[in-house]
Design goal:
single chain; six-stranded mixed β-sheet; 10 helices
Amino acid sequence: MVVHRERRLYYLGRKHWIDAFVDFSVALESLLHTLNTIIPNKQLPANEIGTPPTQINLPTRPDVCEANALHQIEHCDYSREEMVSILKRNTRKYSYSLTKRFDTGTSRCKFENAANSMFKKTVHITRHGKDYLGSECCVSFLYDCIKSIAQNDSISVCGLPGSAKNMLLQLAFFNMADAFVNGESDLLPCYIAVNCFEKEDYGEQDVKEQMRKQMQGELSDYLSYVQAHPEVSPVLFIDGVREHMISDTAPENILNEVLRKLGKYRRVVSIDTGLGQHTQHQQ
C-alpha cells in the first residue's frame, strides 16, 4: 500500500497551486479532484468531489529559435546594459516574476524595504549546511554574502514553501544587475527558476535531453558573454531546488551539467525545507 507522506502530498499538488495564478476557479476544481483521488479516506459526497483536472493554458515559453532571431548582435558584442536587459527579460516567463511588477512603476526601493521585514521571519541563509546570518536575513546581507564567498562556492536560502525565497533571490539579482550595468561590480547575475522546466510538454522522447536543450537555449547568451569577457564573474541565482530528489530528470541536476562550461561560478540556491522528515513512502 502506498502511504502519501506530507512531503509527497505537497509535490502532487504543486502544479495545481502554481496554475491557480492563471485560472483560479479551474485550478481549485482540479486541486480538489486530485486531493480526493489520492486520499480515499477523505472522500466527499459525489457532488462535492470536483471535476477531473482541466487543461489550463499557461503562458508559453518563447521558442528558442524565435528568441535567438531577436538577437541581431553576436553574443560577445553585447554591452553590459544589453546583456542585463536580456537576463531581466528572461525572468518574465517565470511564475511570481517581479520584473513585470517593477515594469509598471512599482518602487523597488519601497518594495524591498517592506519585504526585508518579512525575510527576517520567513527564511534563513546557510553555507555548507550551517546558518550563515542567523535571523538578520535581508537583501543587502545576501548581496554581501555573495561578494564574500569564493568563486566556486554556494549559498542556500532555505524556508518553507511560500516563504518568499524566490522574492529574496530576485531582489538581490536586480541589485547586482544594476551594479554590473553601472560598472560598480564585475559580478554578472543570472536568475533561473528550474521548476519552470518541469512544466514543459516534452512528449515521450528523451525528456532529459530535451530539457537540456531548453536550458542551453535559454542560457546561450549568458554563457557566451561570460566566456568572451574573462573579467566577468558569473553568479547564478537558482530558484526551485528541492530538499530531496524525487525524479531521475531533476532539472537542477541537468542545469549543473549545462553550466559546467562556466568553470567556477558563485551559486545562490533557494531550497524548500520542512516538508516532512520521513523519506520512506511505501510499505
